[in-house]
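pinned: reference chain
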Amino acid sequence: MDGLAQKLAHLRSLLAPMESVLVAFSGGVDSSFLLKVASEVLGDKVVALTTSSPTMPREDLESARELARLLGVRHLVVESNELEIPGYASNPINRCYLCKSNLFELCEATAKKLGIRNIVDGLNLDDLRDYRPGIKAAEQKQVRHPLVEASLTKAEIRELSRQLGLKTWDRPSSPCLSSRFPYGTRITLEALSKVERGERILRQLGFKVVRVRYHGDVARLELERHEMARALDPQVSEVIAREFNQIGFRFVALDLKGFRSGSLNEGIVVPNASVVDARE
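pinned: its structure tokens
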């Protein structure tokens, strides 16, 4: 048995004793893989919970609905609005903690109502290298991270997803829209809509991995380096500028460093070692 197969077997062995689980399900690569494996191990003892909110792109919600349906997993969609959480809209450095606390409170209440014993999420080993204040919220609600416990990296999860036939295996990461705002920049419904519409425009133009970082009147675009030249083609750049002006941005800037996941966390110390230790 190769290393990947061993890790998959380990993941299954971690899930089996749980008997019933509620998966915090975003529809992304990691939670989709976890939901797939959990459903294979535990069958109808698995429930997926997704929150529908202004910070979640509509396309991501529809993708989550479709995948849960294909897997035959019971899927609960709970309405939520993070902007109503005290302090969230001011976008403090612990914004992710506020969001995850709200999410896991919803998960906890749902699990209790349904008699489900465990709550799990799709945190993976690579996530521990970034600033993740939401991990503290998970610890407070005793949410487990089976992918971390199985020592699975993002690349390994993608490969195993491919082997299992999940169409999400090569899907670009899609964190919540609030992650496009520098800490301290107020988050509003209007601004979230601008970011979502801007990223949709870029995807419609054929760009696969996109981020529209919000800086007031300025939209700072992060694209993969090999796609940056096409964005600067006069015909393409003219369309981008025109479309972004129409949705309310006065200026459009291309970040010459290209796409970096979590770029707005650069320079923040990562205090996640305790989660790594918990795998041992």
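why pinned: Residues 273-280 have pLDDT under 50 and may be disordered. DSSP finds eleven helices and seven strands in the chain.
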